[in-house]
Design goal:
Length: 261
């Protein structure tokens, strides 16, 4: 029997990268997964592949920049499946690599909307159902970047730090309703987001990433997915208000990397 048998999970940004790996892993463990994204082609293909492999998944278009889309995603899942046990607020974008004084207001607001306000929206629409059920697990995707500094990523780090502190706050507030709220902070993970960053900033960034992780490599989306499965499962029934680092030791390491200077 799978670790998420009978549970209903909603994942944002599930067409690719970490969200895709989480969707696959949760379906493998028996959950019915509502996989959402703005990339309808990849999203549909991802859900179809899960079904083909014997899992339960459905694709839903959802732009996390839109409150109406997130409401429709969550209300639709509850209408179809009768409940929502797990919400993974995963979708985010990378705008950075520039000093904060070169960032425009428009870039700032776009990043905060997609990476932070989206988490508020997801929680806002899922919580009434979870409180009513007297159970639920919300997993918010934070980042190592919310723990340590890296030149050029002020807005991204600000959003991720806020995701972590919001998650802690809500864990306290909704613990009495048996709703658990945790965040995950991945280190550098091999996903399309980072392919984009390397394209924009150069190959030297990829070499530096490997050296920054004491484990000697960057991570795989599946390694983050295993952490999400744990937090979603009843095995984590007494775990709330934590930030689970899946970062190859990145945030444990000193920032001085001899080979790089
Ligand atoms: N990759 C990393 O190294 C890393 C490290 C730390 C944290 N994270 C976090 O993990 C999460 C997933 O990152 P990833 O690397 O898999 O990203 P990714 O860019 O590879 O994939 C993100 C997915 O989200 C979708 N998406 C983008 N904008 C969206 C929107 N407005 N609404 C809905 N979906 C949207 C994309 O279409 C894509 O399918 C993000 O929250 C990211 O900040 C990633």
């Amino acid at each position: 029997m799978g670790r998420l048998e009978g549970k209903v999970a909603v994942v944002t940004g599930g067409a690719d990268g970490i969200g895709h790996a989480i969707s696959k892993a949760m379906a493998r463990e028996g959950a019915t997964v509502f996989l959402s994204d703005i990339d309808d082609g990849k999203g549909r293909a991802a859900a179809e592949a899960i079904v083909k492999a014997g899992g339960k998944a459905e694709y839903v278009h959802c732009d996390v920049g839109s409150d109406a889309d997130i409401k429709a995603l969550i209300e639709g899942a509850v209408a179809k499946a009768g409940r929502i046990d797990v919400l993974v607020n995963n979708a985010a974008i990378a705008i950075g690599g520039m000093p904060v004084h070169e960032m425009t207001d428009e870039q700032w607001h776009k990043l905060i909307n997609i990476n932070l306000t989206s988490v508020f929206r997801g929680c806002k629409h899922a919580l009434p159902h979870m409180i009513g059920q007297k159970s639920g697990s919300i997993i918010n995707m934070a980042s190592a970047q919310g723990h340590i500094g890296l030149d050029g990523w002020t807005a991204y780090a600000g959003a991720k730090g806020a995701v972590m502190s919001m998650s802690r706050q809500m864990a306290v507030e909704f613990g009495p309703h048996n709703v658990r709220i945790n965040s995950i902070s991945p280190g550098t993970i091999n996903t399309p987001m980072n392919v984009q960053v390397i394209r924009e900033l150069g190959e030297h960034v990829a070499r530096a990433w490997v050296k920054m992780h004491p484990i000697g490599r960057i991570g795989f989306p599946e390694e983050v997915a295993e952490a999400a499965v744990y937090l979603a499962s009843d095995a984590a029934g007494f775990t709330t208000g934590i930030d689970l680092k899946v970062d190859g030791g990145l945030t444990a390491a000193p920032r001085y990397v001899p080979d790089l200077v």
